[in-house]
Amino acid sequence: MRTKVLLINPSWGGGVSQQGGRHNRRWPPLDLLNCAALLRGQGLEVRLIDARAVPTGLEEMRAAARGARMVFITSSPLDRWQCPNLELDSFTRLARDLAHPRLVILGIHGTLLPEKLLAETGAWALVMGEPETAVPRLAAGQELSQVPGAAWLEDDALVMGPEPEALDLAALPLPAFDLAPPHLYGYEVLGGDFALIETSRGCPFACRFCLKDMYGPGMRYKELEQVYEEVAAVKELGARHAYFMDLEFTANRKRVLELCSGLAEMNHGLKWCCQTRVDTVDQEVLAALKAAGCVLVHYGVESGSPEVLGYLQKKVSPEQVETAVKLTRATGIMSACFFMFGFPGESEADRRATVALARRLPAELCSFHLATPYPGTGLAADCAGLEPFAEFDSMHFERDELARWVRRGYLSFYLNPRRLASLLGRGGPALAARGGRLLAGFLK
To answer: Do 267 and 260 contact (CB within 8 A), yes or no?
Structure first.
């Protein structure tokens, strides 16, 4: 009988987390699907419990765990590597209650705080960094001391194996998409029957607030034929919408033009979105995205203040933001822009500039959040004494005041007659309704 391995992606509760405002979307745990494909390649039987997509109680999880030789549970699937949930109590409690003798923790929380996560969950081990290299080795029975990225406790002291190894994306098999059928997933901005696809991993930029510890060094790419195969695979499973989960989809201009040319030739029929920077798009790139099926681009803008953008080492200006968003709209692609409040030294004038920039932009969607000084980032270094995975530094900021600015940002952007008319005109009542639900969820 083949050895059974259980992979678990826990639910994080309601649609929007009360701590940090994280939107707990039903998106496929792509890194676990990579791990499942690798484990199947070893002849192992794999089961996935994705409680974000299918609500699953503790007893059902415990029953599934009892039938598995090894259990891997993630605190942050790939789509949450950069912006993980902040509340950890429910996760550590679930991991502890599973009480499995070979329980392994995956995700960014254990990567940054291995001793804390091991102690609070009672797990046998955890994996620091990308899981795809270590998980197959652990499942095959390799000694912890030989597994790159492995960490565990001995007599309450942290012990670590070799340094994590950077994954060769081109060597990955087709993800086990069948374990996460598209009909279970959706993105309120695009619709249901939804899949995630990754074409590259990493980011060449060094923004002060960005959490990149899960991504390893440098930029790594899949072969273009791999990407086309994945698009065909999710389409065959019934996907109508997709998100390319690269950190910066257009960072490599030559490659993205070639990739989009191939996607356009496939005539795949998927409507998809991606995320990137305002300074890595131009008319040719945006036209290529549109021809390949892209209907939405996410832009990380962060602030409307040149001073704050300079502090963040973002290396873009508000003028570049406006140019890119206007060009995106002119190309026939929707934009979603992301802003934050609460950076060190940020003044009321800076916050007013952020709200004013968002209001000026011809974007269809915007979101506003409190800045999170993640451990190990430059932003955290400037917030001395801050607890890990805290939402803000009470020594510098007033949470209620920042929350008012978040609310002000949402209301100023969305309760704009021109914006409402744009949503109705570009996406019809369906998009306007989805945008309204998104706004209501965050304001709640």
So the answer is: no
- DSSP assignment, residue 25? -
DSSP state of 268: -
What's the pLDDT band for 14 if we cut at 50, 70, 90? low
d(CA 369, CA 352) in angstroms, rounded, equals 15
Angle of helix 399-414 relative to helix 348-360, nearest 10 degrees, comes to 20
Question: Cα dist. 383→222, 371, 373, 376 in Å?
Answer: 37, 11, 7, 11
List residues bridging with 160 in a β-sheet: 151
In the numeric block, the tokens 């007033």 are attached to: 398
Q: Output the pLDDT for position 285.
A: 98
CB 367 within 8 A of CB 338: yes
Which domains are delineated in the chain? 4-160 (3.40.50.2300), 181-443 (3.20.20.70)
Residue with tokens 């008012």: 404
3-state helix, strand, coil in the chain (%, to 5): 40, 20, 40
* pLDDT given at position 82: 92
Cα 423 to Cα 267: distance, rounded to the nearest angstrom: 27
Is the model's pLDDT at 1 over the cut of 50? no
Between 424 and 211, the higher pLDDT residue: 211
User: Which backbone phi and psi does 236 adopt, to 5 degrees?
Assistant: -65, -30
Question: How far apart, in whole angstroms, are the C-alpha atoms of residue 71 and residue 50?
Answer: 13
pLDDT of residue 399: 77
Q: How far apart are CA 310 and CA 303, in angstroms?
A: 10
Query: What is the DSSP annotation of 108-161?
Result: HHHHH-HHHHHHHH--SEEE-S-STTHHHHHHTT--GGGSTTEEEEETTEEEE-
pLDDT for residue 395: 45
Condensed to tens digits (0 to 9), the pLDDT of residues 18-77 reads 565 667 789 999 999 999 999 999 999 999 999 999 999 999 999 999 999 999 999 999
Q: Residue 30 in contact with residue 198, Cβ under 8 Å?
A: yes
